[in-house]
Amino acid sequence: MAILTNEKYKGSALLQKKFTTNFLTKKMKPNEGEVPQFYVENSHPAIICPEEWDRVQNEMLRRKATGRHQNSLSPFSAKLICGDCGEYYGSKVWHSNSKYRRTIWQCNGKFKGVEKCRTPHLYEDDIKAMFLKAVSELMIDREALIDDGRVLHTAFTDFNAIDKEVAEITSEIDVLSGLVQKLVDENASTTLDQTEYRSRYDGYIDRYDKAKKRLAALQEQRQLQELKGDILSGFLFELGELYDLPMVFKDEIWNALVDHVTVHEDGRVVFTFKNGTEVTEML
Fold first, then answer.
1. Is 207 exposed, middle or buried (0-12, 13-18, 19+ CB in 10 A)?
2. Which of 28, 55, 121, 122 is spaced 20 to 30 Å from 189 by Cα?
3. Coil, strand, or helix at residue 275?
4. Which tens digits make up the pLDDT trace of 137-181?
5. Full-model pTM
6. Which domains does the chain have, with CATH numbers?
7. Mean pLDDT rounded to a whole number for the chain
8. Residue 71 and residue 77 in contact, taking contact as beta carbons nearer than 8 Å
């Protein structure tokens, strides 16, 4: 995690992540807003491009939002969801030591509860075939989907209101920091009523903390909107590149188009694509 979130790999540097609390002991502590930080872009040659680094941050945010563990050993990991209990499907190997060896996918929580889930297991070939059929149905209205997707993408990537509020709160934080420092200096150089001093100090700190929390919320909201825009952009690009029918299953097409797939006990398999469109296939 420290490597994946380190901005130095994209050629930038965040200065004063830590600061010295005691110049005699040289004790350091993480900077949690006590002193200013400075972000320098293009401070040194990058190892990876900034766009790729940003996509990694967005992918970590997306995975965190799911609240579930996932791996990337298969394109189907963390994509298939049980319609009974909401658990992910996981892969199982049947007849591993014989010529009848097959990989199947079934609900990870199938046998955890008092009543086992009634959703069926899936063979990988069936998942691929249903996906290709669902995409074929999706492509019937491809041009309309692309046009609607572009409008939605524009809405996701309109950060004007957020950026305006971020600038206002950042300015407020700077003012409050100055007020706190001025008050502390004044208390150190003159005799202030300590009750009044504590009241003013606590008031500034309370406003400062609220502003910092609001700033963090806005930054996360912006990142989530950017993530949605990035996901939708990939969906629109891949959909626009699909011309040949019948198609051949490819991991990159699956990853770019599918948000998740819900499997129901009656054999319905609902593909939810990254633009929100749902297509139902039957086992």
1. middle
2. 28
3. coil
4. 888 888 888 888 888 888 888 999 999 999 999 999 999 988 988
5. 0.67
6. 1-72 (no CATH), 79-282 (1.10.287)
7. 86
8. yes
